[in-house]
């Protein structure tokens, strides 16, 4: 090389070397995602030397000083170094350096980046009220994540991953809890700022039926008539502190009747009545089941009923022995009628016909006696 050209190159190098050195000091390192970094996430470290392309990069962990090489969870592509499934052991300071392909030129060491790997936040699922849950109650499931903010919540039932419900708030309310709601429940939190999710514990709400109620007829036991007064009692299988009772007639609430036992009139314009009841208390369970209906059929008052229930007339002195026998027979039939009334009100019509036939037959007998001169004169 001619001396003049060597002199020119030396002057150029001497003139631009400080500027080149200044540009090499601009190597920078960034991390994605930024702290906090959670166990299992993927972290990407990006090294950049401005104004230079086609360089290769070296990566170091400050507390070891050893160059990191792609292997296992570590991989490198151009100026990005990736750590997959980070763990606590990956915490520390990282830095990088650029180098020309020939190795003759290096950048200055980059800034240091602190990587702090922590455990995922915990999600805890709770249920109110505490089990057992009684059918019909309102149940609140709450998913609590102990750190960070900006979560959305997903709710799942059973081992399935089919989402039941999603919400911004951390509460899920189930009105009218029933047997089909029993089983395994769990929730999942999704962080809005990056793809990060946490799973909760599972709970198994146990469902218990409400205490059963029964309507007991106290008086009368049978043979009801329109206008009668009946006494009813509401028995509940469990607990003894039922402070209030609700009574229903034909599915409508009976007002102002809140005691265990009640008396109620059978209205004069209805022949069939259905009575049910349920109880209320201050502690859980708040209510009992609605009882099965008790049916009361009221019969209409009748003249035949009144006449049959009156005592039979005594025979007069001017009646013959045959007449006394007839009167005694009539009393016997009347007693039989009363007995039949108690047994079955549906025999009333039959009995009335029997009595009328008996009277008609007695009248014929007396007419026959009178005709044949058998009737004794009165004294």
Beta content comes to: 25-35%
User: What is CATH's topology name of the largest domain?
Assistant: Immunoglobulin-like
CATH architecture of the largest domain: Sandwich
**Class derived from helix and strand content:** alpha+beta
Number of helical regions: 4
Can you summarize the main beta sheet?
A: 5 strands, mixed
CATH superfamily of the largest domain: Immunoglobulins
**Cα radius of gyration in angstroms:** 50 Å
CATH class category of the largest domain: Mainly Beta
The tally of beta strands, per DSSP, is 26
Gross morphology is: rod-shaped
C-alpha end-to-end distance: 183 Å
Report strand order across the widest sheet: 20-26-25-22-23
Average pLDDT across residues?
77
Fill in the keyword field for this structure.
5-stranded mixed beta sheet; 4-stranded antiparallel beta sheet; 379 residues; Immunoglobulin-like; alpha+beta; 4 domains
Would you spell out the secondary-structure blueprint of this structure?
Blueprint: H1 3-24, E1 28-32, E2 37-38, E3 43-48, E4 56-61, E5 74-77, E6 80-83, E7 92-99, E8 113-115, E9 117-118, E10 123-128, E11 133-134, E12 139-145, E13 151-157, E14 163-167, E15 171-174, E16 185-191, E17 196-199, E18 207-208, E19 213-219, E20 224-225, E21 229-236, E22 244-249, E23 252-253, E24 261-265, E25 272-280, E26 294-299, H2 303-309, H3 321-343, H4 348-371
Parallel strand pairs: 2-9, 11-18, 20-26
Antiparallel strand pairs: 1-3, 3-6, 4-7, 5-6, 7-8, 10-12, 12-15, 13-14, 13-16, 16-17, 19-21, 21-24, 22-23, 22-25, 25-26
């Amino acid at each position: 090389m001619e001396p003049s050209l060597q002199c020119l190159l030396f002057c150029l190098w001497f003139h631009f070397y400080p500027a080149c050195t200044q540009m090499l000091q601009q190597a920078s390192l960034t991390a994605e995602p930024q702290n906090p970094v959670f166990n299992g996430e993927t972290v990407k470290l990006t090294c950049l030397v401005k104004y230079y392309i086609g360089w290769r990069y070296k990566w170091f962990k400050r507390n070891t000083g050893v160059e990191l090489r792609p292997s296992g969870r570590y991989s490198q592509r151009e100026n990005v170094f990736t750590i997959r499934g980070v763990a606590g052991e990956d915490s520390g300071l990282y830095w990088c350096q650029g180098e020309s392909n020939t190795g003759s030129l290096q950048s200055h060491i980059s800034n240091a980046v602190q990587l702090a790997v922590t455990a995922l936040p915990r999600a805890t699922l709770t249920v109110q009220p505490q089990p057992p849950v009684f059918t019909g109650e309102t149940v609140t499931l709450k998913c609590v994540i102990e750190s960070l903010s900006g979560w959305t919540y997903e709710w799942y039932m059973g081992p399935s991953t089919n989402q039941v419900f999603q919400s911004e708030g951390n509460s899920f309310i189930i009105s009218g809890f029933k047997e089909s709601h029993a089983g395994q429940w769990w929730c999942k939190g999704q962080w809005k700022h990056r793809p990060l999710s946490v799973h909760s514990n599972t709970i198994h709400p146990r469902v218990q039926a409400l205490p059963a109620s029964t309507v007991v007829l106290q008086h009368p036991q049978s043979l009801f008539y329109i206008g009668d007064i009946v006494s009813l009692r509401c028995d509940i299988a469990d607990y003894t502190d039922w402070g209030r009772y609700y009574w229903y007639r034909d599915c409508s609430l009976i007002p102002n009747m809140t005691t265990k036992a009640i008396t109620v009139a059978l209205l004069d314009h209805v022949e069939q009545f259905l009575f049910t009841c349920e109880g209320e208390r201050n502690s859980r369970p708040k209510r009992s089941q609605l009882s099965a209906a008790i049916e009361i059929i009221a019969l209409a008052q009748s003249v035949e009923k009144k006449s049959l229930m009156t005592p039979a007339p005594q025979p007069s002195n001017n009646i013959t022995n045959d007449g006394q026998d007839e009167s005694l027979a009539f009393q016997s039939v009347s007693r039989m009628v009363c007995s039949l009334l108690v047994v079955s009100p549906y025999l009333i019509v039959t009995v009335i016909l029997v009595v009328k036939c008996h009277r008609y037959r007695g009248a014929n007998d007396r007419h026959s006696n009178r005709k044949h001169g058998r009737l004794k004169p009165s004294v």
